[in-house]
């Protein structure tokens, strides 16, 4: 049997619908949105993950890590990310350099916590100047590129949405991540 793209798409929609009807599909946490894998086996992109499910979140927050969201036009929903703020962030009079830390396959915005700890230790010890680190959420297996069918605009998400969002937010008088 020859499988055309239309047939594969129809089978995907049918498996996805059957999973929802049967109650087998996981339910998103508050504010989360799912994009589904081609074979209907599960989500390939959970756009907002829950920091309360990260066991060491309290220690990370004490270092200056914040969990934030922004609205992605490409995905049509909010997408989560984490940002590390150095201890002197509130007293800095100008925008700081930003490291954009992209996770590997299977990750989300809760990755590279050892990198955050290392950066924090280097800044507080005076080895490095203050800087921000953004932990992006690029989905489980997107390779940070836009999918051919347009369902996962991950390149757009990072380059055209997240980076400008961070840049604009750090130039405001009261950035979004200092409002807690």
Average per-residue pLDDT, rounded, comes to 77
What is the H/E string?
Answer: HEEHEEEHEH
Which oligomerization state do the chains in this entry correspond to?
single chain
The 3D shape can be described as globular
Helix percent band? 25-40%
What kind of sheet is the major sheet? 4 strands, mixed
Number of helices: 4
Beta-strand portion reads: 15-25%
Taking the alpha carbons of the first and last residues, their distance comes to: 57 Å
- According to DSSP, the number of beta strands is 6
Q: Which ranges are low-confidence, i.e. pLDDT below 50, for 5 or more consecutive residues?
A: 1-31
**Cα-atom radius of gyration:** 19 Å
Lateral arrangement of strands in the main beta sheet: 3-4-6-5
Task: Compile the SSE list and pairings.
Blueprint (H helix, E strand, L loop, with lengths): L4 H18 L11 E3 L6 E4 L10 H7 L1 E8 L4 E8 L13 E4 L11 H12 L7 E4 L18 H17 L10
Parallel strand pairs: 5-6
Antiparallel strand pairs: 1-2, 3-4, 4-6
What does the model show?
The protein is of the alpha+beta class and 180 residues long. The protein is 30% helix and 17% strand.
Can you summarize this structure?
The protein is built from 4 helices and 6 strands; from the N terminus they run H-E-E-H-E-E-E-H-E-H.
């Amino acid at each position: 049997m020859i499988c055309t793209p239309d047939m594969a798409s129809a089978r995907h929609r049918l498996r996805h619908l059957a999973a929802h009807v049967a109650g087998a599909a996981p339910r998103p946490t508050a504010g989360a949105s799912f994009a589904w894998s081609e074979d209907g086996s599960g989500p390939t992109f959970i756009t907002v993950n829950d920091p309360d499910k990260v066991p060491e979140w309290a220690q990370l927050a004490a270092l200056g890590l914040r969990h934030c969201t922004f609205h992605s036009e490409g995905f049509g929903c909010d997408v989560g990310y984490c940002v590390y703020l150095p201890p002197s962030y509130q007293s800095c009079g100008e925008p700081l350099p930003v490291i954009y830390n992209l996770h590997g396959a299977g990750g989300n915005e809760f990755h590279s916590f050892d990198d955050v700890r290392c950066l924090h230790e280097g800044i507080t010890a005076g080895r490095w100047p203050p800087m921000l680190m953004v932990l992006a959420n690029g989905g489980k297996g997107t390779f940070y590129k836009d999918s051919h069918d347009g369902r996962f605009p991950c390149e757009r998400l990072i380059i055209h949405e997240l980076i400008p969002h961070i840049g604009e937010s750090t130039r405001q008088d009261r950035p979004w991540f200092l409002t807690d």
